[in-house]
Known about the structure:
The protein is of the alpha+beta class. The protein folds into two domains: 20-373, Bira Bifunctional Protein, Domain 2 (BirA Bifunctional Protein, domain 2); 381-492, 3-Layer(aba) Sandwich (Rossmann fold). 40% of the residues lie in helices and 19% in strands. The protein contains 18 helices and 20 strands. It has an eight-stranded mixed sheet. Helix 13 links the parallel strand 16 and strand 17. Helix 9 (251-262) packs antiparallel against helix 10. The longest helix is centred in the first third of the chain and has 20 residues, at 20-39. The chain is elongated and about 95 Å long. It binds one RNA strand through residues 3, 5, 13, 56-59, 68-70, 85, 89, 116-119, 121-122, 198, 219-227, 300-303, 384, 386, 416-426, 429, 432, 434, 436-438, 446, 448, 450, 453-454, 456-458, 460-464, 466-467, 470-471, 473.
Amino acid sequence: MSKPDKLKARAPRGFADRGPAELAATERMLAAIREVYELYGFEGVETPFVEYTDALGKFLPDQDRPNEGVFSFQDDDEQWLSLRYDLTAPLARYVAENFDALPKPYRSYRAGWVFRNEKPGPGRFRQFMQFDADTVGAASVAADAEICMMAADTLEKVGIKRGDFLIKVNNRKVLDGVLEAIGLGGDDKAGQRLTVLRAIDKLDRLGPEGVRQLLGAGRKDESGDFTKGAQLAPEAIERVLAFTAAKGADNASTVENLRQVVGSSARGLEGANELAEIATLVAASGYEDRTIIDPSVVRGLEYYTGPVYEAELTFQVADEDGRPVRFGSVGGGGRYDGLVGRFRSEPVPATGFSIGVSRLFSALRMVNSPIVSGAQMPGPVVVLVMDKDQVAAYQRMVSTLRSNGIRAELYLGSSGMKAQMKYADKRQSPCAIIQGSNERERGEVEIKDLIEGAKAAEAIASNAEWKAARPAQFSVPEAKLVDAVRDVLSRHVG
RNA sequence: GCAGCCGUAGCUCAGUUGGUUAGAGCACCAGAUUGUGGAUCUGGGGGUCCCCCGUUCGAGCCGGGGCGGCUGUACCA
């Protein structure tokens, strides 16, 4: 009576299985993105999932928190390895390792899985896909402007209409200038600077008031949890908020506002000038309506050194429960001039953009973009097994179909005819091939058009009638099998 | 990590003040129909009531702890 404990079949939390429909749709989406990237002259490169931990970031796992944020393990030589958590750090390693052989500026793209050991949630996974493009070795902001325009083209290519998205651009140097002006310039203030950065990053969610609290003493959220703030003085807070609110009616006026906010800071002014140049470049190619300067964009990562960008969807969609879904950013990036330089003696400028494939994918589903909602592929033709001693003959039919380029399979289960029909139905099979002794004696096969049949079924109420009618079923000489099946398939294509 | 809510069949959920053998719909399987996917009817399989400990004559229900899920918040190099 005591049953042995069965293993519970379940995927680890934060990890998801993907079915055939999603695989095909993702494949189409990736192909569209790749097409745009190649059009811009970027070339593919692939790096492994695993890197030495110190190549990924600054911290080695320690005893207390060996896997904080990143999945890590030790090799047999005791070196720490980690699953990559983005595609940028591995690219920096790749470029540094192959520096002399690569053309510079080096432009490359790559898509792949990345892993983060964090709390998962809806739309937040511990394994997800990114699609990156980077230009390494170009210090000019023309490289940044190009990335922004490419991001805009990419979103349109995958089916997001112009006007439904924005590429927002800012510059870390401007923010640095502001922080310098309020006395947060030194290395010893790095922690506080990061707190300020993250507070600004929450502007879209918490609004100016919430950010004001986070910049000052702190903020209590609706669950009663308290978040300690950056402890800035009131006038410093106003200065930071003025910076985030510096967006004007157009890019030119935004730049003008920023010049005011940074005051005398040389670094801040440099940043504002870079933004002005990006605005000019973008406008020259006609992208000024979808590439806008927005000082509220800061990005959470601290390795950015110059322009930063974020691709945001601007339309609203309601979920099944009628609540508005906020997509947030579907991609982002920026200039990271220090990242490759960690491996080399000379500094190497670089800038890049990363698309959150999984997030973009669910957004495309919401707007029914044809690229992900295209009709799913029909299943294979199923050859039924009517007489078990005739399997060889059935298999021959399958082979004939296959060698004529028609997806086909032999029913490999052990159930009766009714179950085989159900199987074909569930496989989305366009038609079933039937040959019992009656047909065999006449040298014929029965072909049942399952799609036509399903339509016909709607008009039939009684089972007796259903059986007698045998809707959408016809018999052909065995030699005509391929032609007849082709005929059925051609009726259902498109 | 912190806080709030939640956990009963594959799914969505009922389940009375603690009371016999825990239910429904959908899904699945089979039969009605010895060779025909739909519909209809009939029947069937499927449960560690998240886990452990406790209270009780008796726990799906009460208490404690744990695990898991959702929401918010934090973290995300």
